């Protein structure tokens, strides 16, 4: 069923129509600086489509709870346990009820965890409840940041993973992502890139204008128009909106936010006894508790790392030969190119041999790697971060020299460029098993390669690889899982998907 909703007027005065059915299949990205009218646009979209499609709103500031009175949305306070949020999300999909998940009042870490839990529960709903849902996420850069910030790493990864699932793999489950952000530069690229429809509002920073112009297929000169857009004006492009960039003025809305931009008003007349009025204490001042301060995160303990490094230095010193005349006493000579490559390989092997390394972030492991280099008197960074991540993924795959030298493995490394950095280790581990014709890794092994304890997420990764056309999964006559790589002409043997980790079994 084709349903067009009226978003406002075009520059020519025609109605700006948005095809809801097409939007469900192609997703939408809204971008604009604060005050450009993003929330007004989302409200117009939600109001106009409320009677046609189920809606779920991820609302960081509680601005959209007013939809409840006019359109019957259920307001879900996110200050609940994880189990409660999962249960509510399951019933939301089962009974096809529109809702607003309000995150107001939570710290940013808790907002990210609550949003991730709710979105993952929507994503993991039973197949029989895969009805179309418009999932609107305001301030999406909070939940899918382009880089790590001051938030906890587990919260960032959980939230980013949920947003990636929504935008990359949600379509088959009926979930259509509509994300709005103030800064495109702060939004994860793999999340933004999955949208096929765009509404770009007023923006001033060159980096944001350049990304907006790139998404819309404009040159730099055309991108200058984003600075001149008025509040509530957007440039639209996409199969659900317009095949060519089209300027749109968003129409009025029926409901309003609980909070709005402050308005100027004249100051009241100054009281004659103003100093007495201000400085005379109120009795409540002495009993009012102080506002709690958020505790600063404790630095990660580095005792174990330093012990490892000290032992490594002792081993190197005990095995060093006699000094040459040009060497400084007590200092090790600089490494040759071959020695540097050998040191990098050995160091990555040491890092990945620690079972807990799978659950530490790449940036954390990179700092460990650089510290080991400094202890070996290596000046500068032995590897840039991007190459370190790829080499780390290869090291985690555990390939032997024969496999690493094969043409199939080089092809697998090239194919790994089609997946996100956090999934390269998983992809290469599966590819190594296929090239060696080894049993398919279990869900627990795949989860550990990613750095999570959730076997359910491991199955999502395989689904995503299959959607991208990188692998084909099936089961043999015994019910064991096989993963085949068409581009490698290789496949794994059957493996038990539910098998526990080997060290856990022991």
UniProtKB/TrEMBL annotation:
GO-annotated molecular function: ATP binding
Pfam family of the protein (one): DUF87
Amino acid composition bias (Low complexity), ranges on this chain: 288-300
Chain segments carrying region Disordered: 281-300, 315-336
Stretches assigned to the AAA+ ATPase domain: 24-311
Keywords: ATP-binding, Nucleotide-binding
Matching InterPro entries: AAA+_ATPase, ATPase_Atu1862_pred, HerA-like, HerA_central, P-loop_NTPase
Domain of life per record: Bacteria
Official protein name in the record: ATP-binding protein
Species of the source: Oricola thermophila
